[in-house]
Design goal:
It comes from Castanea mollissima (Chinese chestnut). With 489 residues, the protein is an alpha+beta fold. Helices cover 15% and strands 33% of the residues. It starts with a strand and ends with a strand.
């Protein structure tokens, strides 16, 4: 997530995993308890923690009680919370696009081993992103981080002085002074002044050894302040061993304001940039990472994994993998794709081609940190009109649930009668989400068309609900993304 003094750039993911890393590159130190065998452990895995997971529930309920806030209880409250967060996030993305042009960061990749991580969703408790557990420091301290494909920086709530009271509302805080591998970046260093400028390092440098500081702010007034450091991150391998990644760039966030970070111990940066965790970890595991997002209404204890490395046989695929080009340098940090059009019921909608052209203010990104799918107005209106006609047999609610434009009484709803929506990508690839990903449950006996509109010109976003029940594999060597229907089990 890139940050500016006025706003955060960007989720939480998602995909997964919106802790940015990468100072001096990731070093594969060693596995635990013994030396790593490349032949038997070719993946890194992080679990994608579902929102109903006991450890996530405990974390969020604890924080809510400390803040004396009521967590959203009803499904409608949860959805409206997602809408508010999505709206703020889109404003951040729009701001970021206006500030930065293409910046090629391509480099040679080394084919090596891989890793895998579990992801959880916090939608029931006011946080729409997916979460992963990550261990930082020596000895390792465990945290629940938002997995965000739009974030560059990985950071955790942190204190450099155990005796100071801080972060009282957070059960898990990284105690930097207890980690033997924690080392701050000096503010006078070239790393701070030049290489970390894109992550909004501050120019203030009272002494040569003062730590390099950052100050990130959201457009909603939330902010995160801290210092950059190198430390060790411990990850799980697919052979049940663990691996230490040394010299990982981690933000030590010592102060926050606002609600933007509710429910998380920090952010795992999965955006495309030189300093993101995704880019650096993928370097060591063949240049690939993938995720498969479970249904946000899935039952308790269902989770899946963010995988770095080959995904063969990792997911139950329900169809062939299709590939389309990733436009990695068109919208820095984000995973942009070339959309050619949208069809509903095999009828291509009349949408101006400029809507999909990033060079004239349009374009589309895949974003795990945005929950709903957001369409620029010239695309939004044709989609809503076509789907609205197909749902006319159901009683439309006289007062729609704002900001949803079209909601209806879902008693007797038969999704097989809804025409299928298809995103047509370049190279002939077709993405056909399940009906439940765009005709969404908002309240008992109430469904709505799950799209939000933004004014033109504007960026369209395929959010994590639309991405559900599909495997998404990001190949950063070939600059392509592959996707296929999957049960994500």
């Amino acid at each position: 997530m890139k940050w500016r003094p006025v706003l955060l750039s960007p989720l939480l993911f998602i995909f997964l995993v919106s802790i940015s890393t990468g100072f001096h590159g990731l070093v594969l130190s060693h596995t635990i308890p013994e030396e790593h065998d490349h032949q038997h452990s070719n993946k890194m895995r992080l679990e994608l923690i579902h929102r109903h997971s006991p450890q996530l529930i405990g974390k969020l309920v604890h924080e809510a009680s400390n803040n004396n806030n009521n967590m959203p209880k009803s499904q409608q409250e949860r959805i409206l919370e997602l809408v508010l967060r999505d709206t703020t996030r889109h404003r951040m993305i729009s701001h970021k696009r206006g500030q930065y042009g293409p910046n090629s960061r391509r480099k040679n990749w080394e084919l090596n081993t891989s890793i895998e991580m579990p992801m959880h969703s916090g939608a029931d408790y006011g946080a729409g992103e997916y979460f992963v557990q990550v261990r930082v420091g020596r000895p390792a301290q465990q945290f629940m981080l938002v997995a965000d494909t739009g974030s560059d920086l990985t950071w955790v709530y942190c204190t450099r002085n155990t005796h100071k009271r801080g972060h009282r509302n957070h059960r898990r805080v990284f105690h930097a002074d207890r980690s033997s591998s924690f080392e701050t970046i000096p503010c006078l260093s070239n790393m701070c002044k030049v290489q970390l400028a894109d992550l909004f390092s501050l120019t203030t440098c009272p002494t040569p050894i003062t730590p390099c500081a950052y100050d990130f702010s959201y457009v909603d007034g939330s902010a995160a302040l801290g210092v950059f450091a190198n430390d060790t991150v411990t990850v799980d391998l697919t052979n049940d061993r663990k691996m230490m990644l040394d010299n990982v760039l981690v933000g030590c966030t010592e102060s926050t304001q606002g609600d933007a970070f509710k429910g998380a111990d920090g952010v795992l940066g999965l955006g495309y940039s030189k300093f993101s965790f995704a880019t650096k970890a993928a370097e060591k595991f063949g240049g690939k990472f993938s995720y498969c997002l479970v249904d946000h209404l899935s039952p308790m204890n269902i989770s899946n994994y963010l995988i770095f490395g080959c995904t063969k046989n990792e997911h139950s695929l329900l169809g062939n993998v299709r590939y389309t080009k990733l436009l990695l340098n068109v919208m820095p940090s984000f995973y942009a794709v070339k959309v050619m059009g949208i069809s509903i019921g095999d009828v291509m909608l009349r949408i101006p081609f400029e809507v999909w052209n990033a060079n004239v203010g349009g374009g589309t990104i895949l974003d795990s940190g945005t929950s709903l799918t957001i369409l620029a107005e010239p695309a939004y209106k044709p989609v809503m009109n076509a789907l609205g006609i197909s749902l006319s047999q159901y009683k439309r609610l006289s007062s729609d649930i704002k900001p949803f434009e079209y909601c209806f009484n879902s008693t007797g709803f038969d999704q097989s009668l809804v025409p299928r929506l298809v995103f047509h990508f370049a190279d002939g690839a077709r993405f056909e989400p399940q009906v439940k990903s765009y005709v969404i449950d908002v309240a008992p006996q109430t469904k709505c068309l799950g799209f939000l509109s933004v004014r033109w010109p504007g960026t369209s976003i395929i959010g994590n609900i639309m991405q559900q029940n599909h495997l998404w594999e990001f190949d950063l060597v070939r600059s392509v993304v592959g996707f296929a229907p999957s049960s994500c089990t």
